[in-house]
Every structure is written in C-alpha cells, then in structure tokens.
Amino acid sequence: MRASLEWLREFVPVGASAGEVAHRLTMLGLEVEAVEQIDGDNIFEINVTPNRPDCLSMIGVARELSAAFGAEITFPDHEFKSETGELDFNVDILNSALCPRYAGRIVKGLKIGPSPDWLKIRLEKCGIRSINNVVDVTNYVLLELGHPLHAFDLGCIKGHRISVGTPKDVKGSAEKLRFLTLDGNERELPEDALLIWDAERPIAIAGVMGGLETEVSGTTVDIFIESAYFDPVSVRRTSRATGLKTEASFRFERGADIKMLKKALDRTAFLMHKIAGGTIYGKIDVYPAKYTAGKISVNYEKINRVLGLDLADSEITGYLGRLGFVVEKVNGRYDLTPPPFRVDMQRDADIIEEIARVYGYERIPAVLPAAVTGIEGQDNSRASLSEALLKEMKGSFLKSGFTEVINYSFMGENDLDLLGIDAGDVRRMMVRIKNPLRAEDACMRTTLIPALIKNIVYNVSHGNKSFRLFEISRAFLAGGNRDDKLPEERNHFAAALYREKIQSLYRDDTPDFFVVKGVIEALFNSLKIAPYSFIRSAEPFLHPGQSADILIAGSKVGYIGALSPVVVGRLDIKAQRPSIILTELDIDLLSGHYAQSAQMIRYSPLPRYPFSERDTALIVDESLESSEIVDLLKSYSSDLIEGVTLFDVYKGKNIPEGKKSIAFSIRYRASDRTLKDEEVEDLHNQIVGFMIGRTKGLLRT
C-alpha cells in the first residue's frame, strides 16, 4: 500500500522526519519497504500483513502513528445537512449472513466532470488514476478511511429498489448468471455469488465490482452511494471464481469495519456535494443485527511475565487506550473490548503483542532466562521428555545424512488415492478447509508421506539422484460426526530415502531398506525403548516384500518400507528402478514408551567372563515371519542366553518351493563363571530342537 506522509499529517500531527516515521511504522509491524519523494511529499510503500486490513487506509496508518508518538488523531470532516422527507427508494437484505449491514444515500443534481487537481494528485500518488469527480471521491474515501464504496447511476436502477442476496435468495433457485462488469467483460457468476439487484436484474457483484449498465457516466445527474459490509469468505470466493481482483475485494475479503461504513458514506456524500454540487438526501441504513464485540480477558501479571517487563498499570491502560481498546479492570485482570476495526484480536496473546508493539520491541531488554536445575539436572515432566525425544530423533537422522524439510499442512483426496488408501482407513477422516487456496489442498493432512513424495519428485526433476529427507509435523484427524468436536492433532515423524544407481568408486551393497531400519533401531536403542519388533506390513502403498510395521511392546507406532512399484509408476520420475524408502512414526505413541523407559533405566556392571556364540540355519515355511523366529528364541527360558541376532534370510537354489532359510546367532554368557564348550553345545542343541518343534522346520546343513 502507498501512503502519503503529507496526507497522514492531516490526521495526526507528527513532526518527526520521514525516515523516523518509516522506522517507527516498521517497528510497529507495518514494514516500509521504500520511500519515494514526489513534489516534496514522501510516499511510503508499506507492506501490510493480511491480519491488519484496518491499516489499508490513511486513517489506519494514522492510528498506528498516534499510538506510537502519543499524538491525538483527528477524523476528516463529514458533517452536513441533508434534505428531509420520505425517500422513494427501498433496500432489502435477503441474506443477512452474507450482508449484515447495507447503507446508502441519494445525491441529486450532480455535475459530472473532472476532479480538482488536489484530488487527482493524491490519487495518483497512491497509484489510482482519475476517472471523474464522483468516482474519484469514492476512491479517495476508500484510501482515506479504508472502506470500499460504490456509486450507481440512480436513473439506471429499475424500480427504485435494491435487494442484496444470492440468485437463490432472489429467484428461489440456485443458478449461474452472466453479468457485464464495469471493465466491459461479461463473466459467468457462481451460483452462491452475493449480488446487488434492482427490481429486475443484478447490477453489481457485492464487494467486488459494479455493473456496466449502472455506471456513472458524463450524462449522470443523480446517484445512489452504496456503503455496506459483506462477508469476507463470500467476497473471496466470488473474487476467485470470477478472476476479479479489485481494491474493494482486497479489503472486504480481509475484513472491513462494520461501523466505519456510516462515516465513509457521510464523508463521500460530503465531498461529492463539495466538488460536484447537488443535493444530499436522507440516509438508508438496513442493519438487522447490531455488531457486538467480544471481550478478551488478560491477567495483569501475565503481561509483564511474558514480555519480561515491569510496566505500571497506567502504562498498560495508556497503550491499550491509544489503540482503541475499551479497558475494564476486574479482580487483577483487564476485560478488553477491541475496536470493530481490529478483527484480528481473538485472545490474550494478541493483546500482549499489541502492548509490545507500541512499547517497542527494541526497548525490551535482553535477559538470560533463569536456569532451573532439578535432581541430578533432570526434569522428567512430560513437556521436557517430549522436547528431549524430538531432539534425539532429529539428531539421529541428521547424523545419518538426512535433511529436515518443512511442508504445508494441507493435502487432498487425490494424495490418498495415489497411495491406494481405502475409504475405511482412519487417514480418510480428513478435516476439510472451508476456503482452500487450491482444490488439491482442500484438507488438513492425516499423514506426512504425500508431502515427502512431492519433495522427492521435485528433487529428482532438478537432477538430484541421491538424498535423504525427514519432517516433524502434525497430522489432523476429523473428530467423528459431531460438529462441536475438535479434530485430533497427532505429532508425526516421517522420513524418505531416495537413491538411483549411479557410478561410484565406493560400492555399498547394503539394501536401502536396512539402512533406514538401522537408523530407526539406533534411535530406539539410544532412547532405551524396548522391546520393539518389525512385522510384515499391510500398508497398500509399500512393497509387500520390503515393508514392516514397527511395534513397541506389541503396539504399532509406525511403519517402514519401500514405495510400491505401482505407486512409483504413477509418479513423474524419469529414472531406472529408483530406490525409495519411506517411514512414518507416531511421536505421541512413541513418547509414551519413551517416558516409561526414562523411569526404568537400570545399570549393571560390565561382564567379567567371556561369551560363546553359536550359529544355526533353519529351513521353515515361507509365511513364517522373521520376527516370530526371534520372539521364539527369546522366549526360551535360560539365564545363559545374552542375545539373539537374525543375520540371514535366503530363498532360492537348494531351498524347496514355499520355504526359506533363516540363519540366527545366539550369544551365551554366565555371570559367575566361564562356560565350557560342552555346556554351551548341550544348551544350543536343546534350543535348536525347541525351534524345530515350534516351527516344524528342518535344520539346514
């Protein structure tokens, strides 16, 4: 937005230099990106954030300067006397949800012509071209007070009537209409578009653009000035559907000031009478349900505790008063009523931020936080454990060559369709966004995998042939069919490894699946989480022979596996047999096991006596899971078994059809003596016999 310092000083008497004003605005959160000098005036190019629609006007920026410099603000003159008597004109709001208030004035006997030089110059400084004195006044007030207005040629409004509603509200059925807008283009309007109608037809797209048939032209004598409030979501939806981006829609879709529209209407009529002559008639103001601002409570002590300051009560109330808040002090807290133009004020954190802005972030001293030391320097609170868990997870994967990525928390139905996830899967319980930016991102994501797949495709398309990525973020699950139930938010961890066959001096034959599996096992070992296991996974998007669900104490916390060749074939990856390994963990489930492990750590002395190892291979049924073999070995009751390792799985030559060979190693050790070979052989033979009996397998020789 472009703002004139000369114009701003008409509202607030700021004697500071242009550089100082620009600095203060930037520190307040209105970043001044450039300053341009035009005819002795300084024009600020201000970057206004989407949550501050009130600052898309001179009066809005002036309010900020008033709060920063402690100067009084003066509103422009808008007082006048209007003609009394009944108006032969009616306004009906047919959809009060989309238009809570609609006001207007009739001005008759105007003389349309060029605007005075001072008006043209101010508009041009702010990047708006002059059209005629009536249209220029509506644009001038838009820049001045921030509220969009529209002027209709009164003689072109049929039936002396205006109705505000959608096609369904007016005609009784939803239908798409074609409409000729002010720019001379005929557009197809969506069925739910909010329109301004006369007695026969639509004459404007509410909050977006007027129609060509009621345009103010050189032959116009009488006009109807519209000043209304339209629902931001409705305006944005219609603006996107029609491809129309205007100064009015830009402001309405961010949230206008429902109380400012009366002042804007009177100011417009005042200036039109002053510049173009004519007679001002009474005001029409249809306002079905009066606006009431919700109160926000904030504790006095919390303000100073959060900001690290020691502000007096008078300072806090002074800052809030300058910003337009109505302050009531009740039992050690402030009950605040935000002004209607601050639609972004929702909670106590917003209030504290406002105080910090006006006080000045640069004035807040930098103080090291007090370090609280618990017993042996450990804090076993849930928050501390979660933080330690995330730190450990990040560290493990960073050390293993993975790079952290941050993706948007959106996804679409097509992402789950790509993965072949069934309709009954819990990941189909998506939270739908009411006004998504794209149809492909219409839901909150229930899994992090689709975003990582898109990262892979993007990197491959840019020539990256080997990389490792991970992300820590939230997944969102819709909370059933009850409208009042909030969605469930789960903390997830996901990682992806991508590698193509490339020429290299160093050859590593370790399958990528086991590389990622090894990182996860190392993570669990460092977290002291046990027992954990891997069993065959049924995830539809993973390779059935190279995938596993990750279990801790028998409950599933995640999965790992190679991306199915079927899914890989659907991706835009131009590579020969790429290796893509994916894993996803539920951090909330993992943290529960981590909390238990933190309380169960036991230390034992190093072994004094040597160990003995024995290796054996069994031929078993192909359907028998490797994890079942390990569990059987661990279930054998003997104090001499120190560890079990599965080191080979083989199918092929010399192995019967439907069978596989599984080789395992058992480590034996006694705590009070050195084991004899005979003792180890006897125990090992017993274990092998036990395994053959349980698995109905054969000893491989």
CATH topology of the largest domain: BirA Bifunctional Protein, domain 2
Low-confidence stretches: 373-380
Beta-strand share of residues: 25-35%
> CATH H level of the largest domain: which superfamily?
Bira Bifunctional Protein, Domain 2
- Strand order in the largest sheet: 18-21-22-26-25-24-23
Total DSSP helices? 20
The second-level CATH architecture of the largest domain is 2-Layer Sandwich
**What would CATH call the class of the largest domain?**
Alpha Beta
Radius of gyration: 36 Å
Alpha-carbon distance between the two ends = 82 Å
Overall form: elongated
Q: What structural class do helix, strand and pairing data support?
A: alpha+beta
Largest sheet: 7 strands, mixed
Average predicted confidence as pLDDT? 90
- How many β-strands, per DSSP? 30
Domain module count: 5
Q: Approximately how much helix is present in the residues?
A: 25-40%
Summarize the model shown.
The protein is 31% helix and 26% strand. With 701 residues, the protein is an alpha+beta fold. Helix 4 (117-125) packs across helix 5 and helix 5 runs antiparallel to helix 9 (260-276).
Walk me through this protein's architecture.
This protein is of the alpha+beta class. It folds into five domains: 68 residues, Phenylalanyl-tRNA Synthetase, Chain B, domain 1; 197 residues, Phenylalanyl-trna Synthetase, Chain B, domain 3 (Phenylalanyl-tRNA Synthetase, Chain B, domain 3, 3-Layer(bba) Sandwich); 66 residues, 2-Layer Sandwich (Phenylalanyl-tRNA Synthetase, Chain B, domain 1), CATH 3.30.56.10; 218 residues, BirA Bifunctional Protein, domain 2; 88 residues, Ferrodoxin-fold anticodon-binding domain (Alpha-Beta Plaits), CATH 3.30.70. Strands 18-21-22-26-25-24-23 form a seven-stranded mixed beta sheet, sandwiched between helices. It has a five-stranded mixed beta sheet with strand order 4-7-10-11-12. Helix 5 runs antiparallel to helix 9 and helix 13 packs antiparallel against helix 16. The radius of gyration is 36 Å and the shape is elongated. The chain starts with a strand and ends with a strand. 32% of the residues are buried. About 1% of the residues have low confidence.
